[in-house]
C-alpha cells in the first residue's frame, strides 16, 4: 500500500495568492476504509545556530523558535472507502485566503546553512486505532506575489572595483607585494533573481602569473538570539571566470547564474536577515598554494587577492 502527492505544476512553484492543485494517488491491493482524508499546508522559518561555528555558547544553540508563516488543514474527503488498485483523489487548496489574517509575511523558499524557509504539503488518511494512518509530505516552492514585487526595474548601474597589492588587508607573497598587480572590473550589485549577475574584468598587470580568477557567491545569515545577533557567512557556489595566466588588458565577461533554492530576495526581518555578497578571488601561481589545495577558498591567503561586494537580490514583476 502506498500514497503519493502529485502537484499540477512540475516545477512546484506557487505564489501565496494562488491555489495549489494536484492529486493524491493511493495504490492498494485491497479496498480500505478510512475516517477522512486531510491535507495540511505548513510554512515556517526555521532558525538554528550550529554550536561553535559562530563562537556562541552552547546554551544558545537552537534557542531561536521557528517562525510560523502558514498552518492550515482542509478535509479533502469525509470518512469512506478507497477501492483496490490505483485511486486518484483530486484536491485544491488556497495557501492564503483573500482577506485572511496571516501569521507572518510569506517569505520566499530558501535553503541556507542556518536559516531554512520551507513550505510543506502533508496528506493524512486516518484509519482508526487498529491501522497506522497513511501519510506523505512534499515540499513546494513559494515565490513572492506579483502585487508585492518591485515595480521599478533593477538599477542598471555597475559598481567599479579594483584589486591591487595595496587594497589587500592580509599578508601577500613577497614577490606580489614588491612586483604588484592591478585588476579592474565592474559588476551589477543589484540583481533580479531570474537574471544572471553580469559584469566584466580586466587584468592590467601582474608580476606573478595568475592561476585562476573565481567569483564566490556568499550568503550572510543573521539570527537574533536573546539580545545577541549571530551572523555567519557561508559559500553558496563558485564560478570560474578565467583559468591560467590571463592575457593582459583583455576584457573578460562575468556571467553568473543564481541557484534557485539557495538564493532568495534579500530579507531584513526583525528576528533574522538573509543577505548576499560576491567575492572576486584571484589565485596566483605559487608552490605554497599546492600544499594548501583543500583550504577554504574565501579565507585570505598569501597567494590570494580578494575583493567582496554586497549583492542585493530582488524579484521583479
From TrEMBL:
It is found in: Endosome. InterPro entries: Arrestin-like_C, Vps26-related. Its main location: other. GO terms for biological process: intracellular protein transport; retrograde transport, endosome to Golgi; root hair cell tip growth. GO terms for cellular component: cytosol; endosome; endosome membrane; retromer complex. It comes from the Eukaryota. Keywords: Endosome. Pfam families: Vps26. Component of the commander complex that is essential for endosomal recycling of transmembrane cargos; the commander complex is composed of the CCC subcomplex and the retriever subcomplex. Component of the heterotrimeric retriever complex consisting of VPS26C, VPS29 and VPS35L; within the complex interacts with VPS35L. Interacts with SNX17 (via C-terminus); the interaction is direct and associates SNX17 with the retriever complex. Interacts with SNX31; the interaction is direct. Component of the commander complex that is essential for endosomal recycling of transmembrane cargos; the commander complex is composed of the CCC subcomplex and the retriever subcomplex. Component of the retriever complex, which is a heterotrimeric complex related to retromer cargo-selective complex (CSC) and essential for retromer-independent retrieval and recycling of numerous cargos such as integrin alpha-5/beta-1 (ITGA5:ITGB1). The recruitment of the retriever complex to the endosomal membrane involves CCC and WASH complexes. Belongs to the VPS26 family. PANTHER family: VACUOLAR PROTEIN SORTING 26 RELATED. This is Vacuolar protein sorting-associated protein 26C. It comes from Prunus persica.
Amino acid at each position: 500500500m502506498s500514497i503519493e502527492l502529485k502537484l499540477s505544476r512540475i516545477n512546484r512553484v506557487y505564489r501565496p495568492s494562488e491555489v495549489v492543485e494536484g492529486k493524491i494517488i493511493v495504490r492498494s491491493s485491497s479496498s480500505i476504509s478510512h475516517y477522512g482524508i486531510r491535507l495540511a499546508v505548513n510554512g515556517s522559518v526555521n532558525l538554528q545556530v550550529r554550536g561553535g561555528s559562530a563562537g556562541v555558547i552552547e546554551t544558545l544553540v537552537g534557542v531561536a523558535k521557528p517562525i510560523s508563516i502558514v498552518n492550515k488543514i482542509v478535509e479533502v474527503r469525509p470518512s469512506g472507502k478507497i477501492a483496490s488498485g490505483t485511486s486518484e483523489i483530486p484536491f485544491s487548496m488556497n495557501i492564503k485566503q483573500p482577506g485572511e489574517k496571516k501569521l507572518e509575511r510569506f517569505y520566499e523558499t530558501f535553503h541556507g546553512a542556518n536559516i531554512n524557509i520551507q513550505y510543506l504539503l502533508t496528506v493524512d488518511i486516518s484509519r482508526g486505532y487498529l491501522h497506522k494512518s497513511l501519510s506523505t509530505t512534499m515540499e513546494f516552492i513559494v515565490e513572492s506575489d506579483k502585487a508585492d514585487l518591485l515595480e521599478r526595474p533593477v538599477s542598471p548601474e555597475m559598481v567599479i572595483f579594483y584589486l591591487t597589492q595595496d587594497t589587500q588587508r592580509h599578508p601577500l607573497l613577497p614577490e606580489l607585494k614588491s612586483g604588484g598587480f592591478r585588476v579592474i572590473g565592474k559588476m551589477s550589485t543589484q540583481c533580479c533573481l531570474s537574471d544572471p549577475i553580469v559584469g566584466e574584468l580586466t587584468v592590467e598587470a601582474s608580476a606573478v602569473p595568475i592561476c585562476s580568477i573565481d567569483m564566490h557567491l556568499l550568503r550572510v545569515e543573521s539570527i537574533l538570539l536573546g539580545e545577541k545577533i549571530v551572523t555567519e557567512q557561508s559559500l553558496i557556489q563558485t564560478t570560474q571566470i578565467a583559468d591560467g595566466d590571463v592575457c593582459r588588458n583583455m576584457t573578460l565577461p562575468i556571467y553568473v547564474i543564481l541557484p534557485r533554492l539557495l538564493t532568495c530576495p534579500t530579507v531584513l526581518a526583525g528576528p533574522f536577515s538573509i543577505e548576499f555578497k560576491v567575492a572576486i578571488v584571484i589565485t596566483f601561481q605559487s608552490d605554497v598554494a599546492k600544499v594548501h589545495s583543500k583550504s577554504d577558498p574565501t579565507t585570505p591567503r598569501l597567494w590570494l587577492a580578494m575583493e567582496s561586494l554586497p549583492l542585493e537580490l530582488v524579484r521583479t514583476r
